[in-house]
Specification:
The protein has about 170 residues and is mostly beta strands. The protein has a single domain, classed as Mutm (Fpg) Protein, Chain: A, domain 2. It has one helix and twelve strands; from the N terminus they run βββββββββαβββ. The strands form three sheets. The chain has a six-stranded mixed sheet with strand order 5-6-3-12-11-10, with no helix packed on it. The longest helix is centred in the C-terminal third of the chain and has 4 residues. InterPro entries: Cytolysin/lectin (IPR015926), Fruit_body_lectin_fun (IPR009960). Pfam families: FB_lectin (PF07367).
Length: about 170
Amino acid sequence: MSTIFISHLSPIANQTTTTIAFAQPANMSHNLNVRVYQTNTNAHFKIVEKAVFYKNNGGFWSESDGVLTLTVNPDNTSGMLRFQTQNGKEPFTVLVGMFQQKVWLHILPNIASGDTCVKLLPQYYDNGPLSKVDLVQAFEAQNNNRRNLAVAVKRSEGQSYDVDIIIG
């Protein structure tokens, strides 16, 4: 965190005063604002689990006006959403995270019904089976039922990123 000293002349006492202001730390949090779109009406998907990997103080999920926001500390952490149909079919996960100050995204399109975010998310870290996936800002996959799934960064401004998930 940097400290800024501001000196100015006080009009009342005709004296110079010093104000100390604290700037935002250089490693402030990132907000990943996630919107989910469903383009096919033959099944309705719902989010059944949200998780955050606890690394570098982790982060948290929040929701407002239909937008999910993952707030993470600056580097090497992520969150995951697990989806399935309202009938419990076609489960898949979407990972959104930050690595080296860049958003990274991934989809696991065909997970077992018993696989959870708590089980799968750590596999992206510490030489786990998913630790070698490409770190990309857009990802598309197709599940076993030939349903198209996509996730992509649509806009970024400062420490805030808009991410769209599209379920076809």
